[in-house]
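Notes from hallway chat w/ T.B., transcribed later so I don't forget. T.B. wanted the structure written out for a chain they're using in a teaching module, and asked if we could keep both sequence and structure tokens in one place. Agreed to drop them here.
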Amino acid sequence: MKIRSLLILANTISLVVILVFLSISYVKMFISPDIIILLSLITLGAGLLSFGIHLTITSPLLKSVKQMSKEAGKMASGDFDVKVTEAGPLEIKELAANFNHMSSRIEEMFGELKESEKFKSELIANVSHDLRTPLSSIHSFVSALNDDIIEDPKDRKRYFETILSETGKLSLLIEEVLEFSQLENRKLSWNPHPTPIDQLLIDTLGQFEPRIQEKEIHVKVEYDDSLPLVPLMPLHIKRVMTNFIQNALSFSPDHTSLDIRAVKKEEQVEFSVTDQGKGIPIEEQDSIFERFYRVEKSRNKAGGGSGLGLSISKEIIEIHGGSIGVESDGQSGSTFWFQLPLEKSGEERR
């Protein structure tokens, strides 16, 4: 039975009961039948007026309930972009507000779910594509070595070096996927340690020394001696530094220079890497930190990138409460930078 029917039934029963008791009272008062009829008619009129006022007052309430029922039906059919009017008595307004909040949260949750499913599809497609090339190379070279096709020691050494390089790419890709999965699932806890930036930078640069010498890149480092120990997670910030320097080396022509800066900027430390490569198109700079984004797919593949490195870097810097970005005129050279607060933030980290 509908709420309106229940209210009408309840009002009718109460009106009948009142009329019955008033009629009995009139009879017991020993008044004339004409007066009894007049009083009964007056009582009935008052009851009907009360009935009409009751329906008028409860009409907005019924309208709000009916609207919520209608919008709830839309939600049940999969349409979560619904809102109800917050009007009527205080309790109904609160109910409508809670309904709207619930609707927004459900819509947001389903949006995140769709985004997660889209990410999984992209992850499978991109990782499968990026795995195919090194695996094919490894398979070809191992087959040639196994069949003793390559007899020259220099060629064999070159084949082994290629296999080592391709396995390194596979290892890096798997590491990036696992790390990004941790960040997506909020499994990376905020556990900072006071760390000297100079030592972190030296450790990071050390792993690129052979590559720097091979490409004959001139590296210029500017370091602010006044920098205090910075509260950060060393392994993860080193991961960001590594990504910046690796990208700069991959996209810089031979015999060029690389400028690396770690300086104090107000109450923050700023780390930046400037290369002399082709630059980042201005229209693509806002998208470059998105997952799987590649400015030049062919160039990125040559560098062994998966399109996850900068996205991982952004997540790590945001966990530290910092900011990250890129500056380029779109023609030549790019500067990738991030800033971290020098004081440990009291805000709860993910």
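Follow-up for T.B.: Strands lie at 193-195, 218-223, 230-232, 257-265, 268-275, 323-327, 334-341. Might be a good example for the class.
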